[in-house]
Amino acid sequence: MPTIAKDTTILVVDDEPAMTWALCFSLEADGYKAVSAADGIEALQRMGELRPRAMLLDIMMPNMDGWAVLERMRDLPLEDRPRVIVVSALGGISDRVKAAELGADAYVAKPFEVDEVLDLLHAMDRGPSEEAAT
Fold this sequence. Notes:
It is a single chain. The chain is α/β, with parallel strands linked by helices. The protein is built from five helices and five strands, in the order βαβαβαβαβα. A five-stranded parallel β-sheet has the order 2-1-3-4-5, sandwiched between helices.
């Protein structure tokens, strides 16, 4: 899986405009390029166009939910898949397990502190060998 370096593209997928704005603003303030999608269909289109290195993915959305996005991503070669942090109001253990089984790298339950998401991205930026060294 690719690491997430600063100035690379992060796709924010959420149907709540205020949440999307807050996440994009915070990502850009931290040095990432942020783009957004309002549902799973748009997310898959943006993935094909922009090839983001990471995705912040809501689960409950219209048209195509986050579960369907994760399932569709399984068809992509590993090197073409963005790293995924699920950001959802669904916070139960069964939701976390399902996300992991579908390939999500991390799970953050809403409401959350944006620093929690940034810390996860920073950890992904370091990569596995650097994480072991710290």
